[in-house]
Specification:
Distance between the termini: 96 Å
Oligomer: single chain
Number of strands: 10
Strand order of the largest sheet: 5-7-6
Largest sheet: 3 strands, antiparallel
Number of helices: 31
Length: about 725
């Protein structure tokens, strides 16, 4: 007789596998006692009957009763077999019977029971630590921490199982039953056959912990999860003897936790970067996993794909892309100080930013804004940009570490590993001249927008830029600041309370648009007086007035009310024209000002929006003197009723009309300066049209309407002409 006839009811293939497992553990003993075989066959039928009576497995509290009932029945069969058969042959036969008892449907019962028991034990250990200490001994000592720090709160299965141990008495009973069940399994010597079920239950606990940590980026989760999984491993080692396995259970749980948690954080990495620095704890956890599994390249490749899909598209503004790039730089340098991951992820971002027209303008705006984090890098100034646009640190320490092997295929890692964020942004372009030119334009606009000669802020910005780009690159800005200082001294020498002029050097300032019209004689006389005094102080220089950027402070009195405002010289010239006659057509006004009719119409519309004149007939305007204030507002709001009634415009009719009047100025800006962002257009309108009260939200809605009407085009966050 051989071992294949021990359990005749089992298939030959299954029995053959059992015998191979038995041979691997102890020498095969050939027996001749036929009574053992008969008893084994009888017990096998009983076990098959018990397995067939198992209910359909469901994840609910009934699993405790199902498992205890099944385990008790198997224990009865084992005791009957052990009391009858006592030989080496009997030991071999019971090994085969134990395998039969804890495979198939029974394996799922073991898995569900162990999973539910471990959930409850974790809950008891943290809710009633003294009770768990008395029942489990030193195994639970290191897990005596607040429950909210490690358990998977909110998971349906955990909430369901915890109802089994709702109070301390129920918890004590459950721990006792768990201890008894573990002892029965040890006595049955079935752990080798239930190993797969044990590992699956542990895997589910790990999955629950990882799932519960999803989107929890403000605190570090890895350490508390390691505490829970190590507790489970040591508990099973002590109660089920899993320490005898080839791979220690604690090592298995540690590897499984790091692998699955790393995959989850890699999937969430894009969102983690968006929330940085609030998500710095999640970055620290991910770094631990990356260093353990050497998965730097895989993490970088996955993040690069997410960036290309979710960030680098026309729907994202340039400022948003730059903000994400800056966060990406800071996060990835925490993950990988060698900057190899950063080079892999940043390459498509840098390429895409070079294709945007307003990238340089957005970077300069953030650099000079004191609320921006780039301002700190600019103020630091320790890292310089050389002539080729590469960054180097004058105070770089001598500490050096070699680049990882992944850096061999990444160009530029060694060159940019020590550069700060601002240096990396500047290195997007091959030359630094584009940033210098944009900064010069920014400084010029800011100086022209000032009411006086206070340039302290601009002086500070220029000095910080000199630390970054060198003094030679900022020579034009130095000339601009000198022009402001010289203009202040000239105006103090002239001592004319009527005129105050900013005298600029034509070669170093951007060309400004010129208004083609004839200045009224009274205004011309005032200018001549200022010009004579200036040329006496500066004999080698002559003045050329730029009316488009000039402002006149005046007070208009009409119908018993006065209006204090700032207007351009061309707009004030309209009032001089109406002083001689109360009514003028656009054609007559253009002849009086010696300008085009379109230009004259835009100027008179300014006064119509303020209620100073009204349109009495088509393209004919009359001064308003015999009408009430309400009628003035009505006359000023009849310019474009269709535009004021649009759903997307939040401004009232008079404000919309004023915006339509400003459109000519906006067209002139875009013609002379190219594509401009919203804030630049708003600040330049305030400079060209002093006293204008248009908010940035009203301007945004108006420009969106112009884009819909196909009169402007929007590229990223900038507006440009069609």
């Amino acid at each position: 007789m051989n071992a294949y006839s021990v359990c005749e009811v089992l298939p030959d293939a299954e029995l053959r596998g059992i015998v191979q497992q038995i041979k691997a553990r102890k020498p095969f003993v050939r027996a001749t006692d036929s009574s053992v075989d008969k008893l084994a066959a009888s017990c096998s039928l009983q076990l098959l009957q018990l397995r067939s009576n198992l209910p359909a497995i469901s994840s609910d509290v009934s699993i405790f009763c199902v498992f205890q009932s099944y385990l008790g029945s198997v224990t009865v069969v084992q005791q009957e077999f052990a009391n009858t058969a006592r030989s080496a042959r009997a030991d071999v036969a019971w090994s085969a019977l134990a395998y039969q008892a804890f495979t198939g449907p029974a394996a799922h019962v073991v898995q569900e029971w162990l999973y539910a028991s471990l959930v409850c034990v974790l809950h008891i250990t943290t809710t009633w630590p003294s009770l768990a200490q008395a029942a489990l001994g030193d195994v639970c000592a290191e897990l005596a921490v607040p429950r909210s720090e490690y358990t998977s709160e909110g998971l349906p299965s955990h909430a369901m199982y915890k109802r089994v141990c709702g109070n301390d008495e129920q918890a004590r009973q459950l721990l006792n039953r768990f201890e008894q069940s573990c002892k029965q399994l040890m006595d049955l010597n079935v752990l080798n056959y239930a190993k797969h079920s044990v590992l699956q239950a542990v895997d589910r606990i790990i999955d629950d912990q990882v799932q519960a940590s999803a989107s929890q980026w403000e605190t570090q989760c890895l350490e508390r999860m390691q505490t829970a999984t190590r507790f489970i491993a040591r508990l099973l080692d002590a109660r089920l003897g899993s320490s005898q396995w080839t791979e220690p259970l604690e090592q298995y749980t540690d590897n499984a936790l790091h692998t699955r948690f790393s995959l989850q954080r890699e999937h969430e990495l894009f969102g983690i970067i968006v929330d940085y620095p609030d998500s710095a704890a999640a970055i620290a956890d991910l770094r631990t996993c990356v260093e353990r599994h050497h998965s730097m390249h895989a993490v970088a490749t996955g993040l690069r794909k997410a960036v290309q899909q979710r960030l680098l598209h026309p729907g994202a503004t340039t400022s948003d892309i730059l903000a994400q790039y800056i966060s990406c730089i800071r996060c990835l340098r925490l993950l990988d100080p060698s900057s190899t991951m950063l080079e892999i992820v940043a390459r498509p971002i840098r390429t895409y930013l070079r294709s945007r027209d307003d990238t340089v303008a957005c970077i300069i705006h953030d650099m000079v804004s004191e609320e921006s984090e780039l301002f700190e890098d600019l103020a630091n100034g320790s890292i310089r940009i050389d002539a080729e646009g590469k960054a180097y640190d004058e105070d770089c320490s001598l500490d050096w570490t070699p680049l990882p092997i992944e850096a061999k295929s990444v160009h530029g890692t060694a060159l940019r590993r020590d550069a700060d964020v601002l240096a990396l942004l500047v290195s997007i372009y091959d030359t630094q001249s584009v940033f210098v030119q944009e900064f010069e334009s920014h400084v010029a606009n800011q100086l022209l927008a000032h009411d006086g000669f206070d340039a302290a802020r601009e002086i500070r910005q220029v000095e910080m830029m000199k630390l970054r780009f060198g003094s030679a690159a900022l020579e034009r800005c130095e000339v601009m600041l000198k022009d402001v200082a010289d203009s202040k001294r000239v105006c103090q020498s002239v001592r004319d309370p009527v005129y105050s002029a900013l005298v600029v050097s034509r070669q170093f300032w951007e060309p400004s648009p010129a208004d083609s019209f004839t200045v009224p004689p009274r205004m011309h006389a005032l200018r001549d007086q200022f010009t004579r005094v200036f040329e006496a102080l500066r004999p080698a220089r002559s003045l050329e007035w730029r009316d488009a950027q000039s402002r006149i402070e005046l007070q208009v009195e009409i119908n018993g009310r006065s209006i204090d405002l700032s207007a351009r010289p061309s707009q004030v010239a309209v009032l001089f024209a109406f002083q001689s006659t109360p009514q003028l057509s656009v054609c007559e006004l253009a002849q009086s000002m010696e300008c085009s009719e379109e230009f004259a119409l835009s100027c008179v519309k300014f006064w119509q929006s303020l209620g100073v004149v009204r349109e009495s007939a088509s393209r004919v305007f009359t001064t308003v003197e015999d009408h009430t204030g309400d009628e003035l507002v009505d006359n000023g709001s009849d310019m474009d009723n269709d535009a004021s009634d649009t759903e997307d415009s939040p401004a009232p009719a008079s404000r919309t009309d004023a915006l339509h009047m400003h459109f000519n100025f906006i067209v002139g800006m875009l013609t002379n300066f190219g594509p401009l962002p919203l804030d630049r257009i708003h600040s330049m309108l305030a400079m060209f049209i002093p006293g204008d009260q248009t908010s940035i939200d009203e301007l945004r809605a108006f420009l969106a309407q112009m884009v819909r009407e196909d009169r402007l085009d929007m590229a990223g966050s900038t507006y440009k002409l069609k």
